[in-house]
Design a protein that fits this description.
The chain is an alpha+beta fold and 483 residues long. The protein is built from 14 helices and 16 strands. The longest helix has 23 residues, at 131-153. Helix content is 32%, strand content 23%. The structure holds adenosine-5'-triphosphate (ATP) and manganese (II) ion (MN).
Length: 483
């Protein structure tokens, strides 16, 4: 007989087949015993709820029961009966228990008590066995699934762009190098610099910071595409919103202008939120209570005005605010924190780059809504963004979310060859190396646009987790690559 004839706890809770014999498998969360009977709360990760198993010492030997301690993995066969206790409709009366994997209760790092998120980060290999992380990773899965559902329904094609590239799309230079050269003793050219001609790719290569440029090539053939893959940035920013390795969703569409782009982004974000609200009810309820609990330790004025689910509904049901960078600068200049010099970076004049404190002021204090900011000064944005008539701004679009700041960055792309080339030359971006990118403008160019959504920031927003390290299974940040 096959080993796995188990019923998932999620199914058992949904169906409660009273009187039937079933087998469940999972990990012990808690066990309570008295003289007559033991209660085991079993969790198999299929759902946040534990399933209650009642084990009678007349049926299950004391030796086995001793091993059913927190953390142990069990296979339990028994009869589904109506629950005597509260809450659940059914429970399992055990006929047999097989201990699949013991866990020494003295040494098991996860105790039934509450652990801090910081502590759990140090045991990331086990933290998925907690309610919080089980909920986060089920929601993360649902959102990833919804991404594909959304684009597939709209006729977009999923493109796998390369992870190793020779281009640095942002021109930021914050890349991880990919090489097979002996870094202690690399081959040198005559002028003493490293001879990358002798490297694996016969040139310098790095991990991708974005799939956009390749995405553009695909959009100018398949019309509407998206990427969803890992991206890497060697930026040394130890914030609650930056990872060195994160996942990005990048749709790229031919025949879209800036407004089409913003419309798609808003619709997409709302779809993801609604998908989670509809499909992750139990987990979101749990995460909402977790957040409430966490906020109790904060001063009253820093607590959120809405509960998690109410906030999600609010964002999904209301129009995002759309303003230009220039309008935002006016608001920020006149704002209290700017007047009272409370911002770390004061907004003095047009052209200033917006910091996260400014983005969050606009979203959380001024508008109290997600904001789509458009038409930034070209100096603070990338070379590929479409230049506006004014000669000063580009058709950029950032979407700012409460509690997160920038969640989406995008733009209409510069489709005009002459303007693109002159901008690249101004910025010192080698046009010869980018010949393949420029070919799309050379041959059959067309207006097109796209954006990048940081997947972990979206998961943060939906789950209410304050630190981005807690929404990816094994976070990579400066100094951290354990597990
Ligand atoms: P930020 O200013 O917050 O560093 P960015 O301007 O570098 O963001 P983009 O290059 O436009 O961001 O990337 C698109 C999206 O990818 C961002 O809107 C954000 O959601 C996400 N993102 C960017 N950098 C990171 C990172 N280091 N970790 C996680 N997500 C990120
Ligand atoms: Mn960045």
């Amino acid at each position: 007989m096959a080993f796995n004839k188990r019923v998932k706890i999620k199914t058992l809770l949904e169906q409660s087949p009273i009187g039937e014999s079933v087998t469940i498998m999972g990990w012990v969360r808690t066990r309570r015993s008295n003289k007559n009977v033991s209660f085991i709360a079993l969790n198999d990760g299929s759902i946040i709820t534990n399933y209650q198993v009642v084990a009678d010492p007349n049926q299950i030997s004391e030796e086995i029961l001793k091993k059913c301690a927190t953390g142990a993995c069990l296979k339990i066969s028994g009869t589904v009966v109506e629950s005597q206790g509260s809450g659940q409709t059914s429970e399992l009366h055990a006929n047999s228990i097989e201990v699949l994997g013991e866990a020494d209760p003295e040494k098991y790092p996860l105790q039934p008590k509450k652990h801090s998120l910081e502590f759990l980060r140090e045991i990331a290999h086990l933290r998925m066995r907690t309610n919080t992380f089980g909920a986060v990773f089920r929601v993360r899965h649902a959102l990833a699934f919804a991404v594909h559902q959304y684009f597939n329904d709209k006729g977009f094609f999923y493109i796998h762009t390369p992870i190793i590239t020779a281009s640095d799309a942002e021109g930021a230079g914050e890349t991880f190098k990919v090489t097979t050269l002996d870094i202690g003793n690399p081959p040198k050219t005559e002028d003493g610099s490293v001879d990358f001609k002798q490297d694996f790719f016969e040139r310098e290569a790095n991990l991708t910071v974005s799939g956009q440029l390749e995405g553009e090539l695909a959009a100018l053939a398949l019309s509407e595409i998206y990427t969803f893959g890992p991206t890497f940035r060697a930026e040394n920013s130890n914030t609650t919103r930056h990872l060195a390795e994160f996942w990005m969703i990048e749709p790229e569409m031919a025949f879209y202008d800036a407004e089409d782009n913003a419309d798609l982004a808003e619709d997409f974000l709302k779809y993801l939120i609604n998908y989670a609200i509809e499909n992750c009810q139990e987990d979101l309820k749990f995460l909402e209570n977790r957040l409430l609990d966490e906020e109790k330790s904060k001063p009253a004025d820093q607590r959120s005005e809405m509960g998690l689910i109410e906030k999600l509904k609010f964002v999904a049901e209301n129009d995002f605010v759309r303003i230009t960078y220039t309008e935002a600068i006016d608001i920020l200049k006149r704002s209290k924190p700017n007047q009272k010099k409370k911002f770390q970076y004061l907004i003095e004049e047009w052209g200033a780059d917006l910091q996260s404190e400014h983005e969050r002021y606009l979203v959380e204090k001024h508008f109290k809504k997600p904001v789509i900011l458009t038409d930034y000064p070209k100096e603070i944005k990338s070379f590929y963004m479409r230049q506006n008539e004014d000669g000063k701004t580009v058709a950029a679009m950032d979407i700012l979310f409460p509690g997160i700041g920038e969640i989406v960055g995008g733009s209409q792309r510069e489709e005009r060859m002459d303007l693109l080339v002159s901008r690249m030359e101004e910025l010192g971006i080698p046009t010869d190396e980018m010949w393949w990118f420029l070919d799309t403008r050379r041959f059959g160019s067309t207006p097109h646009a796209g954006f990048g959504l940081g997947f972990e920031r979206m998961v943060q927003f939906v789950t209410g987790m304050g630190n981005i390290r807690d929404v990816i299974a094994f976070p990579r940040t400066p100094g951290n690559a354990e597990f």
